[in-house]
Structure formats: structure tokens, C-alpha cells
């Protein structure tokens, strides 16, 4: 038996959940059902949303809005074919319903047809009086297509509709940043703040733009205004601390980082920044204490382990540094940064076999920096494996074909191997490619740079230039 809503004065959601626990069936009007379904969808309770849709369509079988919510769930669950069939039927009933085009656009978007989704959303715009949500969807589609200019324009429209829409405001600034238009972002935020002078979010974003432009005094003022607007805004204190670091005001920076810890639970990032400040102040005991606090708070934060490792490397305590980089590798053996640091430490300890292995791991995991190829080839030379060193440099040359460091090191290694033919060929190639960088060869191989053999090659190339 269906009960009228006035028999159960509870709010729709509470009443609906009460109904699910009993054998009674309560009656809801279609708008109540829409509110209930939206509530569950917004909170990720899809199974409850589906139950509400099923019951609602029994009570209101002709409601297009409820049928569209049913379609929305189908699209969410990637049941595209069934969703499109329902949309075809609904379009015959109401061809001017913008939600039909929005759901078709969602299907296109999920199929990575973003241009098609945009065309459907533009059609929805023509039919809708409330275009706020559609511009937001358009902005996201343009983001998927890396069209940051048009994405920005649509998110700006969302902000103009609702200046409290901080999600769209963040997206506007994200687009400015991706376009590297920091000046444009600063102008936009200042204009926004003229209308909303106590918006801590906008002040915070403005401070970050000033920071990116190295306008540290202006950034500091912006973060101060963010704090005035909301004295519990942790992000503003943290960013203010970073600015104070740049200005060399390490004690004040520490105070701001400590404020973030007082307001909310401590974070590894705050401990790390405090440690760096104390290291700058040459208070090494406190620096070490906070670095240890960093990895205690978050053992998976690579920056924490690297900070401890660098701390001991700077003190030339390479055995301690090796201990901590190995701890880091035990946590994450897939980090090329860890392996590269491990290689450098083992080099200092003259553990050349371990250094060679560490460089190989770093490269296998995607570290292709020039320094890595050069240092790895040097380690192979220390191990008296010239062919391996040449092979390493040949790999590096694929990434840095114009590098004088690589191109002049190759003939030097051939000379070390007493292979004069290949040494001559590669030295001539290096000189032709970059004669002015011959000083690199002199620096790396002083014992060969002034020999008659080398000078004859250099002079012969010089005459042809």
C-alpha cells in the first residue's frame, strides 16, 4: 500500500531509507525522487540511487527527468548502448530537452570523442536557460583536448555565473598556468578580488602567481591577505613559509610552518621544510631531528629520504648516506632518483661495482640525464672496462647527439684503449661538430690534448674551417 507523503512527515531521504527497512511503500512526488537520486549520486551511493530510480519510475512512469537520471546511471556504468536506446526514445518525446544532449555528450566523452561531445554541449547551450553546468562540462572537454584557451573561457563563464564556484576558479588559474600566462592570471585574480576582497582562495592563488614570477614581496602580501581572510587557512601559511625561505628569513618561515602543524595534524611536507630551514640556519641537530620526523610521518615520501641522504653527503658521511639511501630503496626500488643518488654515494666510497649496478638501474627505470651517462661511463672506466664505457656513451649519444661532453669523451676513451683509428675518426667528428668545445677534451684528457698526434688533427680541422 502506498502511503501519502503527509502520513510520514520525515524529510524525503530519511523517509525513503525508512521505507527500505520496512515492507511499506511510501508515495513521493517526482521532485522528491529527483532530490533523493541526486543525493545518492552526489555521494557515490550508486546502488541506492538505482533503487530509488526503480521505485520512482513505478510511481511516475512518464517522468522524463527520472528517466534521464536512469540514463545518467547507465552512462556512469558504461552501459552506452542501452543508454543511447533510452535517449533515442526520450528524444522522440522531447527533442528540446538539453539534458538529452548532455547525456549524449557524456557518452561521446567517455568514448574519447571530445570534439563530438563539444558539439552536443553547444546544442544543449542553445536549449538551456541555465548554462552554468554546461559551460563547466565544455571546459572539461576542452581540457581533455589540451585547448587551454577555450577551456579557460568556459570556466571563466562559470565563475561569472557564481563567484563562489572555487572549482571553476581553480580551473581558470590552472589554464593560465599551463599557458604560462602568469601576468594574465595576476590581472584576472586582482580583478576578481576587487569584487571579492575577502576571498582567501583567490588571495592564495594570487600569491602563488607572484611566487612563480619571483615577485616575493607581492606574494608575501597576498598570502597575508589570505590569512586575514581566514586565519585557519593552512595553505596560505605554508606558501608564505616558502616565500620567507626565498627571502632568507628562515626563522619566520619556520614559524609559519609550525602554525600549519598547530592548526591541523602534522604533515611530512611541513617537517621537511622546517628541516631545510634549520639546515640553512646551520642548526644541524634540529635539521636532522625534523628530517627524521619527516620520514617517520610519511615513510613513502622520497623527498624526506633524499633530504637525510643529502644531509649526510654534505657532511661527507657517505656510509650514513648509503645506509639511508638503501632504506629508501627498500621502500621503493623503482625510483630512478634513489638509484642515481645510490650510484653517486658508492662512487665516493669507491664501490665501483655497486655504482655501476646503481647507474644501470637508474637508466633502466628511465633516468636519461646527460650527467647519468657521463658518470656511468666514468665508473666503467674505473672498472677498466673501456668497451662498456664506450657502449654507455653510444647509448647516451642517442639522447644527446650534440653533447660536446659525450662527443669528446668518446675519442679520449679510444685513446685509453690505444685504438688510434677510432680515436682519430671520433675526434675529427667532434671537432667538426663543435670546434670551440675542444676545451672539454683538454679538461677530461689533459695527457692527450697536447700531444703531437692530437695537435696535428686539431690544426688540420682548423685549416678547413
Automatic annotation (TrEMBL):
Leader peptide range in chain numbering: none
TPR repeats: 98-131, 132-165, 234-267, 268-301, 302-335
Superkingdom per UniProt: Bacteria
UniProt xrefs under InterPro entries: TPR-like_helical_dom_sf, TPR_rpt
Alphabetical list of Gene3D superfamilies matching this protein: Tetratricopeptide repeat domain (1.25.40.10)
Keywords for the protein's UniProt record, in alphabetical order: TPR repeat
Record flagged with keyword Membrane: no
Pfam families for the chain: TPR_6, TPR_8
Name the UniProt record assigns to this protein: Tfp pilus assembly protein PilF
Amino acid at each position: 500500500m502506498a502511503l501519502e507523503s503527509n502520513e510520514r512527515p520525515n524529510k524525503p531521504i530519511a523517509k525513503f531509507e525508512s521505507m527500505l527497512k520496512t515492507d511499506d511503500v511510501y508515495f513521493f512526488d517526482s521532485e522528491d525522487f529527483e532530490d533523493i537520486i541526486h543525493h545518492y549520486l552526489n555521494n557515490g551511493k550508486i546502488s541506492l540511487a538505482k533503487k530509488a530510480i526503480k521505485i520512482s519510475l513505478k510511481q511516475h512512469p512518464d517522468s522524463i527527468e527520472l528517466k534521464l537520471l536512469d540514463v545518467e546511471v547507465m552512462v556512469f556504468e558504461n552501459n552506452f548502448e542501452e543508454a543511447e536506446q533510452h535517449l533515442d526514445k526520450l528524444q522522440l518525446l522531447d527533442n528540446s530537452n538539453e539534458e538529452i544532449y548532455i547525456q549524449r555528450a557524456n557518452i561521446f566523452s567517455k568514448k574519447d570523442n571530445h570534439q563530438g561531445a563539444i558539439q552536443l554541449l553547444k546544442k544543449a547551450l542553445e536549449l538551456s536557460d541555465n548554462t552554468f553546468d554546461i559551460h563547466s562540462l565544455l571546459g572539461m572537454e576542452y581540457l581533455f583536448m589540451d585547448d587551454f584557451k577555450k577551456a579557460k573561457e568556459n570556466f571563466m563563464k562559470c565563475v561569472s555565473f557564481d563567484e563562489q564556484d572555487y572549482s571553476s576558479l581553480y580551473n581558470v588559474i590552472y589554464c593560465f598556468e599551463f599557458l604560462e600566462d602568469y601576468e594574465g592570471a595576476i590581472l584576472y585574480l586582482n580583478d576578481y578580488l576587487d569584487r571579492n576582497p575577502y576571498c582567501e582562495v583567490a588571495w592564495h592563488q594570487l600569491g602563488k602567481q607572484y611566487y612563480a614570477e619571483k615577485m616575493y614581496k607581492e606574494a608575501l602580501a597576498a598570502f597575508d591577505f589570505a590569512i586575514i581572510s581566514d586565519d585557519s587557512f593552512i595553505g596560505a601559511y605554508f606558501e608564505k613559509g616558502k616565500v620567507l625561505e626565498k627571502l632568507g628569513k628562515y626563522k619566520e618561515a619556520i614559524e609559519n610552518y609550525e602554525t600549519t602543524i598547530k592548526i591541523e595534524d602534522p604533515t611530512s611536507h611541513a617537517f621537511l621544510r622546517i628541516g631545510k630551514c634549520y639546515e640553512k640556519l646551520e642548526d644541524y641537530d634540529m635539521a636532522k631531528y625534523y628530517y627524521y620526523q619527516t620520514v617517520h610521518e610519511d615513510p613513502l615520501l622520497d623527498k624526506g629520504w633524499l633530504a637525510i641522504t643529502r644531509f649526510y653527503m654534505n657532511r661527507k658521511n657517505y656510509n650514513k648516506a648509503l645506509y639511508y639511501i638503501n632504506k629508501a630503496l627498500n621502500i621503493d626500488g623503482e625510483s630512478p632518483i634513489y638509484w642515481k643518488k645510490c650510484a653517486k654515494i658508492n662512487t665516493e666510497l669507491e664501490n665501483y661495482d655497486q655504482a655501476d649496478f646503481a647507474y644501470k638501474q637508474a637508466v633502466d627505470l628511465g633516468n636519461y640525464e646527460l650527467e647519468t651517462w657521463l658518470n656511468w661511463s666514468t665508473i666503467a672506466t674505473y672498472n677498466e672496462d673501456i668497451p662498456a664505457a664506450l657502449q654507455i656513451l653510444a647509448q647516451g649519444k642517442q639522447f644527446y647527439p650534440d653533447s660536446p661532453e659525450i662527443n669528446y669523451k668518446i675519442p679520449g676513451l679510444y685513446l685509453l684503449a690505444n685504438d688510434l683509428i677510432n680515436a682519430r675518426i671520433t675526434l675529427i667528428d667532434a671537432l667538426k661538430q663543435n670546434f670551440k668545445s675542444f676545451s672539454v677534451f683538454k679538461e677530461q684528457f689533459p695527457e692527450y690534448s697536447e700531444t703531437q698526434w692530437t695537435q696535428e688533427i686539431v690544426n688540420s680541422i682548423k685549416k678547413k674551417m
